[in-house]
Amino acid sequence: MIASSLFLLTGRGDRKPAQRSNRDNNERLRKLDKVSPTCTLEKWWASTKGKLGLSEAVDGQFVCAVCLEQVDRTHEIRELKCFHVFHRECLEKWFLGDHYNCPLCHRAYFASPPPPITPSVWMV
């Protein structure tokens, strides 16, 4: 009885999430490519280790926070602005699921434009 009442109040039956077309998904992935291009973990690690000032003793082993599996040196990855690294496929799935923030630190992929400054607006 209570369950049927909750159904009537919320009106949330067996709704399926809106399906996007492949064209929409491809367009969205192109936007993701601009802020997070793909490369292999080995290539990324070679260029990033020096930038972060890490010693040669650091092993460079990473776990993808989306699937919780180890990222091998030959796997394609995506790096976000926050320097978090994920399997390419995992981050793409995450992004196409309408998640626009890093799965670990929640930093936005895209910087939102600042609100326009209008000197003529006054608060009373």
UniProtKB/TrEMBL annotation:
This is RING-type domain-containing protein. Keywords: Metal-binding, Zinc, Zinc-finger. PANTHER family: FINGER DOMAIN PROTEIN, PUTATIVE (AFU_ORTHOLOGUE AFUA_3G12190)-RELATED (PTHR45969:SF69), RING ZINC FINGER PROTEIN-RELATED (PTHR45969). InterPro entries: Znf_RING, Znf_RING/FYVE/PHD. Residues 64-106 form the RING-type domain. GO terms for molecular function: ubiquitin protein ligase activity; zinc ion binding. One of its GO terms (biological process) is protein ubiquitination. Coiled coil: none annotated. The lineage of its organism: Eukaryota, Fungi, Dikarya, Ascomycota, Pezizomycotina. The keyword Amino-acid biosynthesis does not apply.
